[in-house]
Automatic annotation (TrEMBL):
This is ABC transporter ATP-binding protein. Keywords: ATP-binding, Nucleotide-binding, Transport. It comes from Salinicoccus roseus. SUPFAM superfamilies: P-loop containing nucleoside triphosphate hydrolases. InterPro entries: AAA+_ATPase, ABC_transporter-like_ATP-bd, MacB-like_ATP-bd, P-loop_NTPase. PANTHER family: ALPHA-D-RIBOSE 1-METHYLPHOSPHONATE 5-TRIPHOSPHATE SYNTHASE SUBUNIT PHNL, LIPOPROTEIN-RELEASING SYSTEM ATP-BINDING PROTEIN LOLD. Residues 4-243 form the ABC transporter domain. The keyword ATP-binding applies. Belongs to the ABC transporter superfamily. The keyword Transport applies. GO terms for molecular function: ATP binding.
Length: 253
């Protein structure tokens, strides 16, 4: 089943005298339960694409359907509601609230719901178990490492069982050990909870944890790689090759 269908997405910035077209007509179909990476050189439009797909930003033209609902046609209020209820987000900067504990941060997305305490506890146990949060739950963000903070923000993204998780460079601020730890957890969540994940990254290692990599170039889809049943190492090499053909390897602003 298709969870996200984007048709001829265009996005420009600027005014009518000076416009820059960042996305020039992107089509994209994401299956329910996929883990997809979006790659491309710095400035190729990855963040812009993720932002319009996740309703943080509006398209200039084109249509985006998430489980059949066209988010480009929704009013701001409806969109805000949809975003809170049906989507989960992980950013490079963990975006945790310093005055709340780890557990309180994770439970935030449930606060808008009328959920029984039993059910809240059950959901917390589920994500805390999968992401290794238990020993952190009473601590504050400034008392834990960057890797632990990002696992907390991942738990927050998954707590309300969103339709899609959008992650923009989630490992961008992490050392390689914390990065691979987080990516393994995301991969595991993708399998165990059948979550759909779309992740922007400029890192071939990170992308090799996903099942499909979509490369952007100059605002268009340049190519797509699928892992299939291959070993991760082999997929990584193919991603590296495509990245070197594309240019702009490894440099991210
Ligand atoms: N709000 C904005 N206003 C004007 N230009 C923007 C804005 N956001 C992004 N851009 C431009 O769009 C292009 C793509 O940016 P971005 O999507 O952030 O690329 P990436 O994430 O691939 O590095 C860049 O040239 C950037 O300067
Ligand atoms: Mg970006």
């Amino acid at each position: 089943m298709m969870i996200l269908e984007a048709k001829d997405i265009k996005k420009s910035y600027g005014n009518r005298f000076n416009r820059t077209e960042v996305l020039k007509g992107i089509d994209m179909n994401i299956e329910k339960g996929e883990f997809v990476s979006i790659m491309g050189a710095s400035g190729s439009g990855k963040t812009t694409l993720l932002n319009v797909l996740s309703s943080i930003d509006r398209v200039s033209s084109g249509h985006i359907q998430i489980e059949g609902a066209d988010i480009t046609q929704m009013k701001d209020k409806q969109l805000a509601h949809f975003r809170k209820n049906d989507l989960g987000f992980i950013f490079q900067e963990y975006n945790l609230l310093d005055t709340l504990t780890v557990k309180e941060n994770i439970l935030l997305p449930l606060s808008i719901r009328n959920m029984k305490k039993d059910e809240v506890d059950r959901q917390f146990e589920r994500v805390a178990g999968e992401l290794g949060i238990h020993e952190l739950s009473g601590k504050y963000p400034n008392e834990i490492s960057g890797g632990q903070q990002q696992r907390t923000s991942a738990a927050r993204a998954f707590i309300h069982q969103p339709k899609i998780i959008f992650a923009d460079e989630p490992t961008g601020a992490l050392d390689s050990k914390s990065a691979s730890n987080l990516l393994k957890k995301l991969q595991q969540m993708n399998v165990t909870s059948l979550s759909t994940i779309m992740m922007v990254t400029h890192d071939a290692t990170a992308a090799s944890y996903s099942g499909r990599v979509i490369f952007l170039k100059d605002g268009l889809v340049y190519s797509t790689l699928r892992r299939g049943g291959r070993p991760q190492e082999e997929f990584y090499k193919e991603i590296m090759n495509t990245q070197s053909v594309l240019g702009g390897v490894g440099v991210e602003s």
